[in-house]
Amino acid sequence: MPGSVKHRAMTTSALVLFSGGQDSTTCLAWALARFDRVETVGFDYGQRHRAELEARLRLLAALKTMPHGEKLATDHLLPLDTLKAIGGSALTDSMKIEIGQEGLPTSFVPGRNLMFLTAAAALGYRREIADLVGGMCETDFSGYPDCRHETVQATARALTLGLARLVRIYTPLMWLDKAATWALAEELGGKALVDLIVRETVTCYEGDPTRHDWGSGCGTCPSCALRAAGYQKYRTAI
Q1: What DSSP element (H or E) covers 230?
Q2: Average pLDDT over the chain, rounded to whole?
Q3: Nearest-angstrom CA–CA distance, 197 and 149
Q4: Are 189 and 29 in contact (CB under 8 A)?
Q5: Of 171, 104, 91, which Cα lies nearest the Cα of 136?
Q6: pTM of this prediction?
Q7: What backbone phi and psi angles, to 5 degrees, belong to 167?
Q8: What's residue 6's pLDDT?
Q9: Contact 150, 113 (CB under 8 A)
Q10: Quick one: which H or E segment has residue 234?
Q11: What mean pLDDT do residues 137-161 have?
């Protein structure tokens, strides 16, 4: 509605949804290259393992020593254990990862990205940050509907209306496959960033610490399969 939203000028700060995984680390490097000041936010939603949450702190410490690291500012960790209370997902409960009755993997956590973006936007409201950055992607992904471009931008519109201020959501990986995501990391931070992502990021649904050339993981869950295949394609291309 005209006049109902305050469209503020482009700020020099961004808030990155930072899980400690490959995609969010690449997005964080992307934001550091574009904004003058970058804050990060992670979510403790009752996930079965805490490997990603632990990786976040190691990654932030390392990124501060790399190019643009001086732009890293406050990190936030928000509890969203409502998702654990709702349950029914292989990421919050002990259950097999397979295709469920709705045609989606049982690793789908209903409403997760919607809640993440809402919480991040509320935090950004208090921090005077209108620009959010997330690692959602609908190219190489498990079919989650809350990762789709249409969903993300509809959420940005709803948040803009609901907060009566402009909320922008950037998704640098939306149209990239995993090989291109690895290549983007190299473009942003060279071999040092690629090596850091291999060494420290956690994307495995099981939080398995087994080492591979593409990083740590069980090697069989959908997330590991996407990451490994993307890495091999990326390595073949260079």
Answers
A1: helix 222-237
A2: 93
A3: 25
A4: yes
A5: 171
A6: 0.93
A7: -120, 120
A8: 45
A9: no
A10: helix 222-237
A11: 94
Given a contact cutoff of 8 angstroms between Cβ atoms, the answer to whether 150 and 169 are in contact is no
What are the residue ranges of helices labelled H in 87-221? Answer: 112-127, 149-163, 178-200
DSSP letter (8 states) at residue 42: E
Each residue's pLDDT tens digit, 53-97: 999 999 999 999 999 999 999 999 999 999 999 999 999 998 888
Tokens of 62: 């390392």
Token reading at 98 = 């397979």
- Whether the CB-CB separation of 91 and 107 falls below 8 Å is answered with yes
CB 55 within 8 A of CB 202: yes
Distances 40 to 29, 109, 127, 150, 154 between C-alpha atoms, Å = 11, 22, 11, 24, 22
The number of CA neighbours under 13 Å toward the Cβ of 99 is 4
Q: Tell me the mean pLDDT in the region 206-213.
A: 96
Domain ranges of the chain: 13-190
Residue 230 amino acid letter: G
Residue 189 makes CB contacts below 8 A (sequence gap 6+) with 29, 66, 67, 196
CB-CB neighbours of 108 under 10 Å: 21
Fold of 13-190: Rossmann fold (3.40.50)
- Encoded tokens for 28: 């964080």
Q: What is the C-alpha separation between 217 and 80, in angstroms, rounded?
A: 25
Cα distances (angstroms) measured from residue 152 to each of 59, 94, 238: 26, 29, 32
- For the purposes of burial, counting CB atoms within 10 Å of the CB of 62, is it exposed (0-12), middle (13-18) or buried (19 or more)? middle
